[in-house]
Amino acid sequence: MRRVREGLGCAKAWRYAITASALAVLEACASGAPVPLARRVDVDQMYGAWHIIATIPNPVERGMVAPVDVYSKRPDGDIREDFYVRFGGFNAPEKHFVVHDWVRPRSDGAHWRVQLLWPFNFPFLILYVDPQYRYVVFGEQNRSMGWIYARSARLSDQDYEAALGHLAAAGYDPVRFRKIVQAPDEIGKPGYWSDGVR
Question: What is the domain partition of the chain in residue ranges?
Fold first, then answer.
């Protein structure tokens, strides 16, 4: 992605440079059993808006509230990712990042590459996608970072537990995951990542 952002000062781009660098290092140092990928992901059904429901807490994503990724097809056939997020609370200004993604050939649509800052790109692996494409589980080889996405900002308890089960089956420790705050009344609730959120 040569253009990292729209309407955002360069000082904020450091989060994404750090993420790209960290995940590139994780990929290079990956060890252990390969993380299992989802089978036959229909990329066309991945287009549209996804709410980030849960993650493993990390310094780069600290303070996120109500993050949303919107995927669409680029003119060159790759994937455009429009990422919308507020950091620190719901009164903070919304940030908008434009990211270049693509799918690695012969991966059944499950091995995505994400370019936050050119020339850095890192793997964004689909570990499981719900048959109705209501939620999806992303991860990376070292299992240090992982995400649960959903079409709506609130995922049912049953679906959330199912998503954690798929992460556990992929070798993750589900206890490490925390829900991301989607509304002010969730700040400070057990199971939510409220660090850095006011």
Answer: 5-193
- Distance, CA of 81 to CA of 49 (rounded, Å): 10
Quick check: helix, strand or coil at residue 50?
strand
Report the CATH number of the 5-193 domain: 2.40.128.20
Parallel, antiparallel, or unpaired for β 192-193 and 178-180?
Answer: parallel
Residue from 148, 140, 9, 145 nearest 87 by CA: 9
> Helix, strand, coil shares of the chain as percentages rounded to 5?
20, 35, 45
Burial degree of 150 (CB within 10 A; 0-12, 13-18, 19+)? buried
Give the side-chain half-sphere CA count within 13 A for 88: 5
The full 3-state SS of 92-159, as one line of letters, equals CCCEEEEEEEEECCCCCCCEEEEEEECCEEEEEEEEEECCCCCEEEEECCCCCCEEEEECCCCCCHHH
Summarize pLDDT for 85-121 with one digit per residue, the tens: 999 999 999 999 999 999 999 999 999 999 988 888 9
Q: What is the mean pLDDT of residues 117-132?
A: 93
Give all strands (DSSP E) within 39-90, no chain letters. 48-55, 64-73, 79-87
Structure confidence by residue, pLDDT tens digits, 28-74 = 444 568 999 999 999 999 999 999 999 999 999 999 999 999 999 99
Whether 11 has a pLDDT exceeding 50, the answer reads: no
